Amino acid sequence: ALDNRLVKSALSEQLGTLRNAPTEKLERLYRAWSHGGFGLVITGNVMVDRRALGEPRNVVVEDERDLPALKRWAAASQESGNRTWVQINHPGRQSPRLLSPRPVAPSEVALKISGQFGKPRALTGAQIEEIIERFAHTAEIVVGAGFDGVQIHSAHGYLSSQFLSPITNTRDDEWGGDPERRMRFLLE
After folding, report:
1. Which of 42, 56, 95, 176 is 20 to 30 A from 26 (CA-CA)?
2. Which of 33, 38, 85, 158 does the annotation list as catalytic?
């Protein structure tokens, strides 16, 4: 249960290191938010795959290499007794060309923003299942580090949102087509 219904929503802080690890800056920021009177604090984009970043200094959690820093971040974020969830994400086709020259997506539907984003390649069924496992593994690691839960980022055109949309998901297999199959990625 939460102490109150005030929630600090997710935002992308871009305060990770150049190798995408949590930093003392994140600890200080989340310690301050912990003392802000929120019942729940939600972190910004934590990526599940370092090959697919939304911004250069996103934190990436795909294994336990940064577990001590994650534990410090979790403790700082909950210092006043509030709960903290980690927002986990994969940008899909919204990974800038400089970070991912050939991003992945449900279908080969490019963003209509010239120059900044490359044309995505459609994921295979096996690659989709591998990304789902990445979400699950990242969730397991961050909860093991002391965070209270996760929020799967499914808005603003990122990968989960791309699967949900008939505009960006033009597949006709078990991962696309009708609304139930387009929801499969997120539900799994």
Report:
1. 95
2. 158
